[in-house]
Predict the structure.
Amino acid sequence: MLTKLPSKTRVYIFGSYLRASSPKDLDVLVLYDANECSPLLAYKTFKILFDKLNEITSLPVDPTLLSYSEEYNVGFLSQIDFFEIKEINELTNCSSGQFKAALVLHSQKRATLNCPL
């Protein structure tokens, strides 16, 4: 599912999607290297990712894009609960009509994030 992203890019899911049984949106944080992806082009670079996540979840994607230096200055990750997505290996339809995806998370262990993603 994930397209090739610029190297040194990290993608995180956070917010109500992780806590609520019926989230209203999908909060996505993208950390990127400003030397490899111009801040002026960052949204356009990652739009295909946001569109695909919207297509899969049927939720509006609320993206936050930060360069590594911006994240260092703000400390965003230290303030939130999150899953880091390394890749989405497979996508299947649950019997409920929702989706689940086998994700490779920050721990480098395979985990399953159950419906609705």
Notes: Confidence is low (pLDDT under 50) at residues 89-117. Helices lie at 16-19, 42-57, 68-74.
